[in-house]
Design goal:
The complex is a heterodimer.
Chain A (H helix, E strand, L loop, with lengths): L22 H18 L4 E8 L4 E7 L1 H24 L6 H20 L3 H19 L6 H32 L16 H15 L8 H4 L5 H10 L3 H9 L1 H4 L3 H22 L5 H22 L2 H32 L15 H15 L5 H14 L4 H25 L18 H19 L2 H15 L15 H18 L1 H4 L11 H23 L4 H23 L13 H19 L3 H21 L3 H22 L11 H27 L5 H14 L4 H9 L1 H26 L5
Antiparallel strand pairs in A: 1-2
Chain B lengths: L3 H23 L8 H18 L12 H16 L27 H26 L1
The chains are: A mainly alpha, B mainly alpha.
Chain lengths: 749, 134
């Protein structure tokens, strides 16, 4: 982790320009704040301009309550992250590039939040995947970073493909590509495919089970990236889209089952796996997965209270998780390690961090004077009223307990207790610059809980955007003694118990099990590459003979298949009488072909092939096509010349192929010949006078002032085709030149 | 192997063949011929010249076939885009207005054909050159 030592490595300070970068999200944040009051009273800010009307693509943006929450998170947390990154990466010459990627991501994410056109949203969606790829693989010299970035990109982009299909179908089913104008598609015949594909896109982006395993791997990214993308913003995109599309595809039983179940499973899996790893960032990653599962579960439940709970949880989770990630970065930077089994008793050397960790842990456990507690109470309350409460409540209970155990580890285990016996080699000194931002976020999550009117207004507007109904939310820290509070206390106690007894049941924490998603993924990629290499080696063997064979066999197959299926047969009644000169030409061609096949010398074979070409030219003449014949004569002559030049250097004919392969050649050649003859006969039995021929014959002199119809077609009517042809010829010539020169020039590379 | 007969005959035939190729090019609009046939004819003349002289020395082939191809493409594309200057779409044929009662003789399709001629002859000559130079 070369970057984490940058702050104390050199006295080089970051150039002043890098401080301009946090100004960008700051300004945007200010602009958004100005609109908050109008958005929270129900108006939405809209902007739309046509982009590609024939594709249904308009640049339309809409800032309503839901978009406002996400946009405020993106810009607000963005200010903190970009300035924190300057301190974190001080002295690192790659800082400007890092900021570029961060800004790129910020722009794309804002686009996702505010886009109203479904296709526009997809474009921004994929842009976030790409900028995430660049950011995860920022340490591109390390193989793990590269692999993690590729894994994230493949999974999220694969889901993105499905999402595109789903959005297009939704545009058809909902009647419009503008999300704000889509009708409910619940009863449309395409509903199930839409639901599955859109869900696939959202699940991959928001790391739901079984696509969750890219997120822990993405912790290879620098800590600012993990705090920004993979906790507060990018992974929320899937949840955001599910909420955004709830009016169009939500509310059905399929929705509830699919979304709710996936969310619930993810919630449990994430919280369980958080206990099994030792790297602090990985722990936070898995707890993020669990929180995302909670959000998805709430959206799956879909009632008004559940949606409201989801909105509050969205804000709360972003705040405490970003704070904890930044804290992890500070600990890594100051203490030199992220391994929780090696960290203990940090409270003396890092007092401010202790406070931050305590508040963050309270948020993680969801019990205490933080916004996350309010969210959890709302979640439990909304789950109690549903039909599946019997499943949901225990799931939430156990997940909360496991997350509480993690929270106790982070908030208490790292900082209290005695320092480990072996003396620390380096003195831990808390870096003020690195602790300011997480402290601010932690204070904010407490402040918002104590003054809940402000997040309440935001959540009201957001929930209204999702459910379509305006329900004034009132958030209180204290809801009175009820079932949710008892459940919270219960899970808190269970979590503390789990932590206290962790020695007994969590002995193998940190060790990789026999089977893991990551290993299956790596195996899958390897097999894919190996399989495609095998196929490429078969098809692209380098032998001209196999290329020609493949092309011919495929062509015969397709032509034969089409002919038999369409049942066209050549007419046999208009054959006419074979005239003498035609018979002579035909015999000439046949004789020359036989000579070409059986000749012992290459020169003889080439000459015989030339005779075949001249015979074809003679046929053209008998059919009154002088231009064709002329070109054919010239080409044939030049071909013979070229062949002679080439074979001058080749050895004498030697019989290299086996009889079997020659028989195969014979069979394929004869089949091609028969096929082409049939084809020509069928073409000849169609009506000779085609519309195009008549048009050209009539207009060639009148419009294009030429009597040679063929030439007029070439340079006037179809000049575009001719232009394409001469470009292709030029490229081919350059290719020939390059290939020959590469081979014969030993000095060049 | 040098053949005196071929060399002497080529000294007369090659320029004639090149002239003939241009003749083929120019007559193409009303009679059989055109840019493709003309270009191939010019390449054949070059092939004959190549056989008659010492094919391996590069001094024998003075001109740059690459430049011929490039300028041919330029001519073709430029004449095709001539229509853009008078607000007409690409590939519109523009003709010099003829004397009254006659059909137009000179126009952009002819120039386009010249471009095709240059490209085809250049391509074939390049391939012949490169193969022969080994």
């Amino acid at each position: 982790m070369a970057m984490s030592h940058g702050a104390d490595r050199s006295a080089a300070r970051a150039p002043l320009l890098v401080w301009l970068v946090p100004l960008v999200p700051l300004v945007l944040f200010g602009m958004l704040l100005r609109r908050v009051s109008s958005v929270t009273s129900g108006e939405a800010w809209e902007f739309s301009t046509a982009w590609a009307p024939s594709l249904g693509l308009t640049l339309s943006f809409r800032l309503d309550g839901l978009a406002m929450i996400l946009a405020l998170l993106i810009t607000g947390v963005g200010v903190l992250i970009t300035s924190w990154a300057i301190s974190y990466m001080a002295g690192d010459p790659r800082l400007p590039r890092f900021q570029l990627y961060l800004l790129l991501f910020m722009g794309s994410m804002l686009g996702v939040a505010t886009a109203d056109n479904a296709i526009l949203l997809f474009v921004f969606w994929e842009l976030t995947s790409i900028s995430s790829f660049l950011l995860i693989g920022f340490d591109h010299e390390r193989r793990e970073a590269r692999e993690a970035a590729l894994k994230a990109l493949l999974i999220t982009s694969g889901g993105g493909l499905a999402l595109l299909a789903g959005l297009v179908m939704l545009g058809i089913a909902g009647g419009s590509l503008e999300i704000s104008q889509m009708a409910n598609a619940g009863n449309h015949p395409l509903y199930l495919p839409i639901l599955l594909t859109v869900a696939l896109g959202c699940f991959t982006k928001s790391a739901q089970f079984p696509f969750h395993f890219w997120l822990p791997a993405a912790m290879e990214a620098p800590t600012p990236v993990s705090a920004y993308l993979h906790s507060a913003t990018m992974v929320k995109a899937g949840v955001f889209l599910l909420a955004r599309l709830q009016p169009s595809i939500g509310g059905t039983e399929a929705w509830t089952i699919l979304i709710g179940t996936t969310g619930g499973i993810t919630m449990l899996v994430g919280s369980w796996l958080a206990l099994r790893v030792r790297d602090l960032k990985q722990i936070l990653a898995y707890s993020t997965i669990s929180a995302l599962g909670m959000l998805v579960l709430l959206l799956g439940i879909g009632t008004d209270e559940a949606i409201a709970a989801a909105m509050v949880l969205l804000i709360a989770h972003a705040l405490y998780k970003a704070s904890l990630f930044l804290l992890a970065g500070a600990i890594d930077h100051d203490a030199g390690t992220r391994d929780v089994s090696a960290l203990r008793g940090l409270r003396r050397s890092m007092p401010l961090a202790t406070i931050v960790a305590a508040i963050g842990a309270v948020g993680l456990a969801g019990f205490g004077p933080v916004l996350a507690f309010i969210a959890k109470e709302m979640m439990l309350a909304s789950a109690l009223g549903t039909a599946a409460a019997g499943f949901i409540i225990p799931a939430v209970f156990f997940a909360s307990a496991m997350l509480t155990a993690v929270a106790v580890l982070i908030g208490w285990g790292l900082f209290w207790g005695r320092q480990p016996e072996e003396g620390r080699p380096r003195k831990i000194r808390e870096s003020r610059a690195l602790i300011a931002a997480p402290l601010l976020l932690a204070i904010l999550s407490v402040a918002l809980a104590l003054l809940p009117a402000w997040p309440a207004r935001l959540a009201t507007a957001a929930a209204a955007a999702v459910t379509g109904k305006w329900v004034e939310l009132e958030l209180h820290l204290w809801h009175g003694v009820g079932l949710p509070l008892l459940l919270s206390i219960g899970s808190l106690l269970l979590g503390i118990a789990l932590y206290a007894t962790r020695e007994r049941w969590n002995r193998e924490a940190g060790r990789e099990g026999r089977w893991s998603f990551d290993r299956s993924w790596a195996w899958g990629i390897r097999s894919l590459l190996a399989g495609s290499t095998r196929i490429s080696r078969m098809l692209q063997s380098g032998h001209l003979r196999s290329y020609v064979m493949i092309i011919l066999v495929t062509t015969i197959g397709l032509v034969a298949g089409t002919l038999t299926r369409s049942g066209i047969a050549p007419a046999t009644d208009n054959w006419g009488v074979v005239r003498f000169h035609e018979a002579v030409i035909a015999l000439l061609i046949v004789a020359a072909s036989i000579v070409a096949i059986r000749s012992e010398s290459r020169l003889g074979a080439v000459a015989a092939l030339g005779v075949v070409g001249y015979g074809v030219a003679l046929i053209y003449i008998t059919f009154s096509a002088p231009d064709l014949a002329m070109t054919q004569f010239l080409i044939e002559t030049l071909m013979v010349v070229l062949f002679v030049l080439v074979i001058y250097h080749l050895p004498r004919f030697a019989k290299i192929s086996t009889t079997a392969s020659r028989s195969l050649d014979a069979v394929v050649s004869m089949t091609v010949g028969v096929m082409m003859s049939l084809f020509v006969l069928i073409a000849a039995s169609e009506n000779a006078q085609v519309d195009a021929a008549r048009f050209f014959a009539e207009n060639s002199h009148r419009e294009a002032h030429g009597r040679n119809i063929v030439n007029v077609i070439l340079v006037d009517f179809r000049a575009l085709d001719t232009a394409g042809e001469i470009v292709v010829l030029s490229v081919a010539a350059i290719g020939v030149y390059a290939l020959l020169k590469l081979r014969t020039d030993p000095e060049s590379t | 192997m040098r053949s005196i007969i071929l060399e002497t005959a080529t000294r007369f035939l090659a320029p004639l063949l090149v002239l003939f190729s241009m003749f083929l090019l120019l007559r193409g609009h009303h009679e059989p011929g055109g840019g493709f046939a003309g270009g191939l004819m010019a390449a054949t003349a070059f092939a004959l010249y190549m056989f008659a002289s010492d094919a391996s020395s590069p001094r024998v082939m003075p001109f740059d076939a690459h430049a011929l191809i490039g300028s041919g493409l330029l001519v073709a594309v430029a004449t095709a885009s001539a229509g853009l200057f008078v607000d007409l779409p690409l590939f519109t044929g523009l003709w010099v207005p003829p004397a009254p009662g006659e059909t137009p003789h000179y126009g952009t399709p002819l120039l386009f054909d010249i471009g095709v001629y240059m490209v085809v002859s250049g391509v074939t000559i390049l391939i012949l050159q490169t193969v022969a130079e080994e």
